[in-house]
Amino acid sequence: MVAGKVVIAGALGLVGRATLGRYVADGWEVIGLSRRAPPEATGARFLSVDLTDAAACRSALSGLGATHLVYAALYEKPELRAGWLDTEQMETNRAMLANCVEALDAEGGTLRHIALLQGTKAYGVHLGQMPIPGKEDAPRHIHPNFYWLQEDYLRERQRGRGWHWTVLRPQAVIGFALGSAMNMLAATGVYAAISRAMGLPLVFPGRGDRVTEVTDARLLASAIAWAGQSPAARDQIFNVTNGDTMTWRGLFPTVARVFGMEQGHPHPMSLPAIMADKEAVWQAIVQRHGLKPHSLRELVGDSWQFADFAFSRDDQAASLLSTIKIRQAGFGDCIDTAAMLEWWLRDLQRQKILPP
Q: Which H helix or E strand runs over 280?
């Protein structure tokens, strides 16, 4: 018996791919929304939908009979950090969510739950030192944010309807997706592989030792699946992280071990700048090891910018979230971050995305 029918918007992104895998494994009927076709069999049905087009959404999604929506789609501008405060980007993200929800939430609809993603920008982490720890009941930060537009839209749309929502706030999701704008895994692995191919030690390219956390995409997928079924998660906001703390520099010995590299002394540098001319080096690695034929752009996307943002934060002591609320509500999964990073890097090696 099928557990339910879930629509996953942004199904080929970091969160979407992991969530799709979780729901398929749990026996759900899964419909993935993406402009691109999946590169391999997933066990889900895919629809190509432009979420910025309300008419296209109505045509593709009306009448699907979905019980759950996982909204993991995201519109980012090429200049990542500038885009986070860009009004047009915010309005586009709100409209995309509204177009998707309104197509699924037609008269007499079957929708029971919507999961929505936010993150630590809710606590102003991109502007400077955030309060420690970030807590879900804190007053909204003063800066404009598409999170607020999407959340307020859901609260308003929900009136008089029978479905519930849950907002999840992870920190620096670690997983795999092609071309993601915020893929620390791909950026770190490719940077290490290129350094090794050039005969160089592995050098941490950041500044400072900000204490922080990350969230395994698989753990986040489990939290999303839990939220869609748990009465304790109805109409609630939850932080969700791996459960331990780390510094990015402190994780580099794990990266060095996976690639069999010596470590050099840390040296701050801009990854978008130093990686701009490395396509030929990467293609030589692809040929030498018989890797899947992705370009740097396809594999890393704009994530060099996000890696710079994560690695070089000497103006901040820490970015930490309280996960007391979600644990008290019934979700207590956790994972060691260093072990998680090693697993993901070795998994990409097994898939022939990164060299052995």
A: helix 279-289
CATH of 5-172+214-239 among 3.30.479.30, 3.20.20.105, 3.40.50.720, 3.30.70.1060? 3.40.50.720
Reduced to 3 states (helix: H, G, I; strand: E, B; else coil), residue 138 is coil
pLDDT digits (tens, 9 = 90+) for 140-174: 988 889 999 999 999 999 999 999 999 999 999 99
User: Are the C-beta atoms of residues 37 and 46 closer than 8 Å to each other?
Assistant: yes
Contact assessment for residue 9 and residue 100, using Cβ atoms and an 8 Å cutoff: yes
- Domain residue ranges in the chain: 5-172+214-239, 180-213+245-321+334-350
Tokens of 336: 């060691």
Rg, the chain, Cα only = 20
Determine contact, residues 34/177, Cβ cutoff 8 Å: no
Pairing of strands 215-216, 236-239: unpaired
118 token code pair: 């936010």
